[in-house]
Amino acid sequence: HSESLIVKLPVQGGFIYDLAKHTEFYDKEPVFYERILPKMNEKLNCEFSPTAFYSPRDKVVVQSDLAPDYHVGDKENQLDFAHAKLFYTTLAKFHASSLAVHRDDPTLFESVKGETLYSAGSALQAWIELGTK
């Protein structure tokens, strides 16, 4: 038996690297996949994402590859009603399960809450706002 995996590593160089080293850019995602999402899945007996695996390396996320069963939708025609309904139903379950997990253990979310990049008065905020004018 073999399994294809996706390994998400921090960028090593360039603009994103320079930006990330001054923020918690890569710190939150592993915590979410390893500690929070499994509890959310358990609440509703629903899998919201690919299976995540423990990584001994800091700031690394390892997940099962969904490519064999994944289909990219048609960008021109977008979603039909049945698929849009499925999406919004699943999104509602995702948010409901996060609220239920937070209700049971509010401290679990402490390490992932708060804005990572776009904080008020930051250089990134000014850069984005200038770029969208």
TrEMBL record:
<dbReference type="Pfam" id="PF02958">
    <property type="entry name" value="EcKL"/>
</dbReference>
<dbReference type="InterPro" id="IPR004119">
    <property type="entry name" value="EcKL"/>
</dbReference>
<protein>
    <recommendedName>
        <fullName>CHK kinase-like domain-containing protein</fullName>
    </recommendedName>
</protein>
